[in-house]
Design goal:
The structure holds three protein chains of three kinds. Chain B is α/β, with parallel strands linked by helices. Chain B contains three helices and nine strands, in the order H-E-E-H-E-E-E-E-H-E-E-E. In chain B, strands 1-2-5-4-3 form a five-stranded mixed beta sheet. Chain C is globular. The chains are: A alpha+beta, B alpha/beta, C alpha+beta.
């Protein structure tokens, strides 16, 4: 249907005003909703109130299975090398050797780590957290579950070399998660 | 192998007419044996043979010289109507040395053209086997507009040269890169433009 | 200072403008060389490769389970769908049937990811057109989905969840309730997003009749997904070749009809995405209601060693992502080629931009919804 130019002119103005009004109405309703004046339909709590969290004063609780920085409990490691083998980016370095005669051959891991026999002596266990891709494959294959993901995500350093974590010897200069 | 960076004036696409897209209708899918039979009878010189029996998709192998005619037939024939060129992939088969544990097979480059028909709802894989030394094949840019960038990528990654390609340049690596990364005997460079590669 | 009085003709050469790799509207590191005549584009040459990490070479050096984190990182916005196709390809070669519960979990997760990805597409498209509000609302809703994923598998963006053989963790009944709650919460929010953008006269004027791709060209270019459906067809891989139990769910496939301009313009592609979000919610609700009890993973060896070659494509938010896998019985893939739909969408920019104005390039880039991680792999 051909519109005359006058019709089209006023039609455009009407379209513009109506669509802008609709958009502004959405924004105004959200403003009321966020400030608690109007509850969401259905009374559901998901989203009522401001959604901005004032980080870093207030921090959100991450779920327990969240995959952030790794941590290895050195007393639970049996040097099986499974984590180093399966890591897709090869960020775990493990060195171990056979036990000498004066080291306890009947040593076992603590009970929370499955009480498994420890046949090798672990010399070095480094994880380069800068290379780690947080896939979680190493924690799945660890037989004693001594390698776990913590929820620690605030560990920035100024130099890439400082991101290599030595899980056998940690001290005050290289503190590990609380 | 040093790659030829040929600068041919860029062709505009308004020259080529695209066939009318046929998307609806009762589908009548064809399988690989029927396609092999049709190709070997209708296109002389294609020497089409089908390979099946392995897990996954069976495929048709044709000669490099007849590839353009075969794809044109598969695109335009009313029983096939493979109007969609899904992907052009290339694989380098090479047993590097004695420590390479891959099963021994002839050293070759296989070009894989996966076609799909919207009208008849079936997928067809066409393969061409090229020698590793000077892999050259005709470009199918005139048949399918999708082939343009796929062929550039095959050239960039594996060094296959396409005759008649309007813009035969590298696409993913930088224009002064040496070597073809997806070849099995590719050696990663230590330096690039005087900069040492980190790590 | 003498006033220049001679009558100089205005120079009318073509100008080459570089819309460089660092640009807020190119959705990543994409470089466009635009040859313009004044304001009209005569030709545009996309230059990609700034995010090329050679995923295909990495896949040849890892075993089959270790490739999955690399698959995630191609299209980092829709990571679950990236893993889905790869898992299906390996399972086809090994001839493994996954249990029905696993199929239902995969469908729920893939559709939630589709909503998240379309929210990002629509939100950033609104941002490119000048409105900050749809961006904020889209990301607020996307945050809910990312938190759901964090409780499901531990990661927000790059999941490593859908593996060949199954999924890595089971979904608890509390999470299924949460998925249904999300759909109930999201429906009015999607209506609001619709109000904000779809019929807004500024948005319509900037996107209707811009970047038209007729269906014949779209098929020849190899488009798929919402880009193809915006040109007037209802072809969808979930309906044409159903995988992982999609045939059990009722949903329609939206197509572009040219409601505000020509069929195949930017507005049609955008509206297809909005309608697809409604359909995804329907699928999630049906899958959550119908999910059977059972195992969450099938039987697969720790280091699988398949043989053969296969090409499988799944419907991802940006198109049909396909994996061509050549396996030779070793523990690493011999060749894994990822066919990325965004690669094809970027190649078509030249044809779509001819004759358009410079500001329309931003509109076209937003409507084809590319993610450079997938273009470059």
């Amino acid at each position: 249907m051909e519109k005359s130019p006058l019709n089209e002119y006023f039609g455009n103005i009407y379209d513009a005003v109506v669509s802008t009004y609709k958009g502004m109405r959405v924004t105004f309703r959200t403003f009321l909703k966020v400030n608690g004046v109007r509850k969401i339909l259905g009374g559901y709590d998901y989203g009522a109130g401001p959604v901005t969290i004032n980080y870093p004063e207030i921090k959100d609780e991450l779920p327990a299975i969240s995959r952030n920085r790794l941590f290895m409990h050195a007393e639970g490691c049996i040097s099986c090398n499974q984590c180093a083998v399966i890591c897709p980016v090869e960020c775990i370095t493990i060195e171990s050797r056979k036990k000498t005669t004066d080291e306890n051959p009947e040593e076992r891991t603590p009970a929370i780590f499955g009480n498994k026999p420890v046949k090798l002596k672990l010399l070095r266990f480094d994880i380069d957290e800068g290379l780690c891709c947080f896939c979680g494959l190493c924690t799945e294959v660890c037989p004693t579950e001594c390698l776990v993901h913590t929820t620690e995500y605030e560990y920035s350093k100024f130099d890439r070399d400082q991101l290599v974590y030595d899980y056998l010897n940690f001290s005050d200069e290289n503190p590990l998660p609380k | 192998m040093q790659s030829p960076d040929v600068l041919i004036p860029k062709k505009t696409y308004t020259d080529n007419a695209v066939p009318k897209a046929q998307m609806t209708g009762t589908p009548a899918p064809r399988n690989v044996e029927e396609a092999t039979l049709a190709l070997s009878t209708k296109i002389s010189g294609s020497k089409a043979r089908s390979v099946s029996g392995h897990p996954g998709d069976p495929y048709v192998v044709v000669t490099a010289e007849s590839l353009f005619e075969c794809l044109k037939f598969l695109r335009d024939d009313s029983q096939y109507l493979c109007q969609n060129l899904t992907v052009i992939a290339a694989t380098d088969f090479l047993k590097k040395d004695a420590t390479d544990t891959q099963p021994a097979s002839e050293a070759r480059i296989e070009m894989v053209y996966i076609l799909y028909s919207y009208r008849h709802r079936f997928q067809l894989t066409v393969k061409v086997i090229l020698p590793r030394d000077n892999p050259t094949i005709a470009s199918v840019c005139e048949l399918y507009r999708a082939a343009n960038w796929y062929e550039r990528e095959c050239f960039d990654m594996l060094g296959v040269i396409f005759d008649g390609h309007p813009n035969h340049k590298r696409i993913l690596t930088s224009p002064d890169w040496v070597g073809h990364p997806l070849r099995r005997d590719y050696v990663f460079p230590e330096e690039y433009n005087g900069m040492k590669v980190p790590l | 200072m003498q006033e220049q009085t001679e009558n100089r003709d205005l120079r009318t050469e073509e100008l080459t403008i570089n819309m460089g790799p660092q640009h807020p509207s190119t959705h990543g590191v994409l470089r466009l060389e635009l040859i313009t005549d004044g304001e009209i584009i005569k030709a545009s040459y996309p230059d990609i490769g700034y995010l090329h990490r050679c995923f295909e070479k990495h896949a040849e050096a890892r075993d089959y389970i270790g490739v999955v984190p690399f698959c995630d990182r191609m299209d980092y916005v829709a990571a679950m769908n990236m893993e889905f196709g790869y898992a299906l390809a390996v399972e086809k070669l090994l001839n493994i049937e996954v249990p029905e519960r696993c199929q239902a979990i995969r469908v729920i997760v893939a559709e939630m990811q589709r909503i998240a990805s379309h929210l990002l597409a629509v939100g950033t498209y609104g941002l490119d057109m000048g409105g900050f509000t749809p961006f904020i609302y889209a990301f607020r809703d996307r945050e809910k989905i990312l938190r759901f994923f964090e409780e499901l598998c531990g990661a927000r963006l790059l999941y490593n969840y859908i593996r060949p053989g199954g999924v890595s963790r089971d979904i608890s009944p509390g999470l299924i309730e949460k998925a249904k709650d999300f759909c109930r919460y999201f429906k009015p929010q999607l209506d609001e997003m619709d109000d904000l953008l779809t019929n807004n006269s500024i948005f319509v004027n900037r996107t209707a009749n811009v970047g038209v791709i007729p269906l014949d060209s779209a098929v020849s270019y190899g488009f798929s997904g919402p880009n193809l459906r915006g040109s007037g067809t209802d072809y969808d891989l979930r309906k044409a070749h159903p995988y992982s139990g999609y045939e059990k769910y009722q949903f329609t496939v939206p197509q572009g009809e040219g409601l505000k301009g020509t069929v195949g313009d930017c507005w049609d592609r955008y509206y297809c995405r909005i309608l697809e979000m409604y359909e995804s919610m329907k699928i999630i609700e049906q899958a959550c209601d119908q999910i059977p009890a059972g195992d969450y993973t099938g039987k697969i060896a720790k280091t699988p060693k398949p043989t053969g070659e296969v090409y499988i494509a799944t419907e991802c938010p940006r198109g049909a992502l396909g994996y061509y896998l050549v396996a030779q019985g070793e523990k690493k893939p011999y060749r894994l080629k990822a066919k990325s739909p965004c690669f094809i969408s970027t190649s078509c920019l030249d044809e779509m931009c001819r004759g358009m104005m410079l500001a329309d390039v931003v509109s076209i880039l937003g409507s084809i919804d590319i993610v450079l991680g997938e273009v470059d792999r």
